[in-house]
């Protein structure tokens, strides 16, 4: 059965829990650990959910926030409903497919 995997990026939550509320407070910590990112890159990292993340940046964030990657990224998985195969029989609701009659009235009359 196919599964759908999702994840949640919790950087902003963990920063707030440690008293950091702006990217300006995070950037010096990154720089002192050898990670040089522009302020727009750090802003996207904090405000959005990254699709790709280098392991050095992940390790540095974990060191700054004193957490593990599992704290930063929470994952969940759920089974997807199986789709009906082509040609497989399924009940047909004829009432939903039947057109409704049009009622014609003389012009000007409603």
UniProtKB/TrEMBL annotation:
It comes from the Bacteria. Residues 10-76 form the HTH cro/C1-type domain. SUPFAM superfamilies: lambda repressor-like DNA-binding domains. Coiled coil: none annotated. This is Helix-turn-helix domain-containing protein. It comes from Streptomyces yanii.
